[in-house]
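seq:
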Amino acid sequence: MTGTPSLSGWKLTRFSAIALPAYAATLPLAVNLPAIFARDFGLSLGTIGAVFLAGSLWGTLLDPLIGALSDRTRSRIGRRKPWIAGGSLLFTLAAFFLFFPPVAVTPAYLAAVLFAFHLGWTAVQIPFLAWSGEISGQYHERTRVATYQSVVAASSLFLTLVLPTIADQLRPGDGRLQMALMGGLVLATTVPAALISLTTFPEEPPLEAPERFSLRQSLTAVFANPLLLKVLASDFAVTLGQTIRSSLIVFFATFYMGRPDWAAGLFLFQFVFGILAGPIWLRIGLKLGKHRAAVLGETVQVVINLGLLLVTPERFGLLLALTFAQGLAQGSGNLMLRSIVADVADKHRLETGEERTGLYFSVFSIASKSAGAVAVGVALPLVGWLGFDPKAANSPEVLDGLLYVFALCPAIAHTISAALLARFPLDEAAHSEIRRRLDAAPALLVPAE
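struct:
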């Protein structure tokens, strides 16, 4: 596939189909399900927090393991396809028990279901991301692949946000109905989407013999690669800024702006225009190159977040305009950085003969997950330390503190992300030379005996 000049948009849409159920399940897991299990199933908040935290840690441990193992998998249909096929079946089964639980949900039941859910999800997601970086070896084609996945993912997240709203219109406060609608979307789409994705492109089996798994070599491949570490740090900063904003947007709309009717609406408004962000930033990336487009996107994010300092309760129109702009800039850095990971893996393969694409995408996933966890752990305690209390009346000074955290923390994070990429050396010319040498000397792909 490396010589393909341009992959058709229809094929890239088909290939991205598996992103629909994968992302449709992640948002409820973080936003809706904990509250529903507490309110409708009687589990304590402490128990739910512990079980979901353990599930997230388990998923984080699985990422590099499955990434490294998929790099070494050998079958007639390829390295990634067996994992995606098997993971989809487990993911579907676990999603059924997660979204359609029996009347009595115990902590042990929830823990077992989340254990299986994260295993199935990771077995799909990490090999799929690695395969995404392999269907084309061309610099800009990889950006197109990531863009189509981004659009499908954003559409999935938007639909998942709409479903609980529909449930509330039908039967307000009915958590089981919300779960049924969200779970129904996942169950109805996972197997068909997996079949569509798996049959879009062939995955040529690699020629080299599988290497024995070595934890030391895997760690060295990650921590001795300065370009990968720079990409991981930049993505960590991007996601940190995004998640700080997301974790505070309900408080900001409700208490600072005095518009509780827009608490969920702002988030939805942003996602509507976020669907358009992918094609916009694809064109910019084709024009400027990936790392320059990422720097531009992060700079735009900085300006938008600093603009929030001008928002007052009387300037709701300005907030809507900035939210609109935020939607159009949404994911610009993540999109380019995800595409760069495969380029970094190519460089490593040329220099060492080691195939680490799956491993590199797995640690990229860990960076994003870690940033999400750190963001919540920083933003909420920080506004609490400044005196904000959602259960009490807050003074104007305290609400100003909420504004500063909401605006400045993401601005600082996006500034750091842009600075990390400002002089990134792996541009189109450098990567084209890497691909030329890889394609001209396939023996380099085989580790020396």
